[in-house]
Structure formats: C-alpha cells, structure tokens
Design goal:
Blueprint: H1 26-36, E1 39-46, E2 49-56, E3 58-59, E4 65-71, H2 75-82, E5 85-91, E6 104-114, H3 118-131, H4 136-140, E7 144-158, E8 162-166
Antiparallel strand pairs: 1-2, 1-5, 3-4, 4-7, 5-6, 6-7, 7-8
Length: 172
C-alpha cells in the first residue's frame, strides 16, 4: 500500500532510454543489492535537521520490508519515535572503488515502526540475525528496539545518473 503523500518520480520521465544497456529488471537489481549489502545509512529527521546513521540491515519476508535494530536510549530511537518517515540508502561502492560508473545505489523511502508483537519480533529478529549473527547479544537485550521499514518505493541509481523507480507490493 503506497503512502499517498510520498512523491513519485515524474511519470513523464518514462522508462530508461532504449539505448540503455541495463536489461536487468529493477526488482532483480533491488533484490541483488539487498542480498549483497549488509549495512545501510538510515536517514531520519528531527527539529528540522536531517540525520544519517549506519545500521545493520536485512530484508524482511519481502523486499518491501527492511529490518534494523537500535538502542532505545539513542538519538536515532528518539527521532524515529517523533517522525516515522525515513530513507534507507544502500550502495555497493565497496565493490567498485575505482569505477564510479559501476556503483549502484538504492534509496528506500517509507515508514519505520518498532516491532512489538512477540511473534512478529521473533520472526524479524531471526531474519536480522541470519545476516548479522554477531548482533545476538545486542538484539536480545531489553534495551534494544527492532524496527521494520515498510518501503513505499525504491529509487535505483546506476551509471552515476540513471534513475529508475520500483514500488514493491507488500502483502497486507
């Protein structure tokens, strides 16, 4: 379900130009980056100021959900409590240190919510731990909150300036 006040790319822009050499569907590109990259930058806001934080991520049961954990005593947690709208930036620049045109990046926009239901938390924590087993003590601590981002859309950038948009379908 798409958030109505989430701006979309200009529909007049259309698909990539016919001479584009990217024949890989955007959904496949998104899934590939999510499976390869373990960390992302979580972008939050508060008091008119943007903030960026490195987070360990995992995809939820669908690419329309991203998972991360944070301590409840952090600024990040306070910002998420006051404004649930976030962006999550994921890129593979580590794979292409000398080839800027080969770097791919995703910006996922959506809403973050703390996972409080015990069953849902257990399932989501297992997903996050499967990608980041070193987080077990942190994730099991009562002072740690597990968050799920319900992704409204992904913006995929590659070859430095080609931008495509994908709106994942989330089961309700």
């Amino acid at each position: 379900m798409r958030d109505r006040d989430e701006p979309m790319l200009d529909a007049r822009a259309g698909p990539p130009a016919p001479d584009s050499t990217d024949s890989v569907p955007i959904a496949e590109r998104v899934r590939g980056l999510l499976s390869r990259q373990r960390f992302a930058i979580l972008c939050t806001q508060g008091d008119g100021q943007p903030y960026g934080s490195v987070v360990a991520i995992a995809a939820g049961e669908t690419p329309g959900h991203l998972l991360f954990a944070t301590g409840r005593s952090t600024r990040k947690y306070r910002l998420l409590e006051s404004c649930d709208r976030v962006a999550v930036v994921i890129d593979d620049r580590d794979r292409h240190p000398d080839e800027l045109m080969s770097v791919e990046a995703l910006t996922a926009t959506g809403r973050a919510r703390e996972v409080e239901d015990p069953t849902e938390r257990g399932e989501d924590a297992a997903r996050l731990l499967s990608r980041h087993p070193e987080l077990r003590p942190f994730l099991e601590a009562p002072s740690t909150a597990l968050f799920r981002v319900d992704v409204v859309r992904y913006l995929h950038v590659w070859r430095f300036q080609e931008v495509r948009q994908w709106v994942p379908t989330n089961p309700s």
